[in-house]
Structures are given as C-alpha cells and as structure tokens.
C-alpha cells in the first residue's frame, strides 16, 4: 500500500457540511424535471427476526438503471453554452458512462466516454447506443480515468469525473433529499462506496438536516481503496482482487475531494466478503424477483452483517443500481 502524491486538487473541498448540503439542495431543484424520484420500498420481510424497519431506495429503477444519472445531469446542467459547445469527456466502466451519455443526449451535446479493458460488453454497447463515442484505454478503471482527464485538458473540453467533482457529488446527494422527504424517521443509511461521490453527497446533506441519522459506508473486502485511504489519511494505491461489486472497483484519482468529504460524513465503515455479497443478491432476487448489481449487494450484505444493532430502528439501504451482466446473472 503506497500513498499517491498530492496534485494540489482541482476543486476546493467545501469548508462545511452545510455548504455541500446547500449545493445538494440546488442540484435537487435543477435536476428534478429530468431525473426520476425513485421509490422508497418497504422490505422488512427480507430481514425477519431483526426487529428493524428496513427500506430500499430503488435507484435500480432510475432511467439508466443507476444513481449515476443524477450527478451527470447536474454537472451538464451546470455548464454554460461555451462549455457545452465543445462537448464533454468522462471515464467509466458502465454506470457513470451511461449517465453522462444519457444526460448529454438530452442536452444535445457530444460526449466521449473512456473505459478500461474490464468494461462489460453490454454496458459498452449501451453507452454507444446513447450516442457517446467510446475510447478503450488501459486495464484498470483508474487508467481510463487519468487518460480521459488528460484528453480533456488537451482538448479543453469539460471532464466529468465519476466522483471527484462537487457538482457530480451534489447530484448524487439528491438521494438524501428524497430520503429525508419520504422517511419521517431515519436512524441509518447504508451506502456502497467506490470513489466516494455517492456517500459524500448523501452523507453531507443528511448530516446537515438530520444529524441523528447514521451514515454507514459499505465496501467489498476485495476493493477497499477509499476505506484504506480514510484509515491512512491520504489516497493510497491498494491491491485489489476481482469483485462482484464492479461499480465500486478501481483506484482513486490523486487529490480527490471525496477523501476529505467521506472522512467527515461516514459514521461507521463495514467490509463484506464476496460470499456475503452474492448471498445478499440471491436473497433479494429469490424473495422479490429484483435484479440488483453487486454494489447494491454490498450495502445489503453490510446491513445483514450488523442487523441486530437496528432492532426497533429504521434503516434505508441504497440500491445503487440494477445493471447486472449476463455472467453475474447466472450466479444469482
């Protein structure tokens, strides 16, 4: 495990949770006409004997099958005409690429999406079907991300990071606005963590308006980069192994603003095994018939691991996406 050198940051980290919370509120107003307010589904029957009231936040029902549409839409709607005229560049092995491609298509602007060798053929095809130009670079998602950033700087196009961007993070945080609006009492929210944009946005907003709500960060044991970075205090390169949680896999860009935001807002951190992720995915599919991707399985598995703690309490689990590859579908 080795630390990455600082890059002096490209954006200022908010000086307070309230500041980021206000950005989330502004994002909610901006994207509301274009992004589905997903249901908060009661699922306590999935967890008998726990004595907890449990809800799924169904981002798998979002228009692109993932929460990523929120951040991409907020970022693109935040740009001025001189910026959108050049088109945008993103890096993603799937859900963020789908979100950027869909948001760009709706706005009538060009989009270029960099992917790594690990991209699912199905997701790559869907990104192209939405009109984005696909560029394949490197093996690790971080390779594609750094290449996309470099291409954007060279062409002077706007780069839309999957997580290292305040507008993207604020867009993802609109899930927190919907949770607070729908749930009269919320003791805990379970969120799978990759780059940290999702938990950063949700956590900042809820910490601002509902400080009693516990924010639980959930990681696969095979890909705990931000978890290890929070422990160390700086972004590190950490050995990764294959994981069902494809959407949270990969390293972090040096200097990412999400490290400090995640450090501030996460109250508890949990790691889960691949076996626990698979069992969670199977439990939901067999009981409800719902396909959820591995990253969502991470959050469900984390709740199962610690459910006794929430007897008599209310917990929400963010089902961050439902874009499941045919290979993984065979397993569940």
Description:
- Mean pLDDT is 93; it is low at 2-10.
- The strands form 3 sheets. A 6-stranded mixed β-sheet has the order 2-3-12-8-9-11. The protein has a 4-stranded parallel β-sheet with strand order 6-5-4-7, with helices on both faces.
- The chain has helices spanning 17-31, 68-78, 81-84, 95-107, 121-129, 141-155, 166-172, 174-182, 197-209, 225-232, 258-265, 274-288, 294-306, 326-329, and strands at 2-3, 40-42, 53-58, 88-91, 111-115, 133-136, 158-160, 188-192, 214-220, 236-237, 268-272, 314-319.
- With 332 residues, it is α/β, with parallel strands linked by helices.
- It folds into 2 domains: 13-67 and 167-329, Rossmann fold, CATH 3.40.50; 68-164, Rossmann fold (3-Layer(aba) Sandwich).
- Helix 1 packs across helix 2.
- It contains 14 helices and 12 strands.
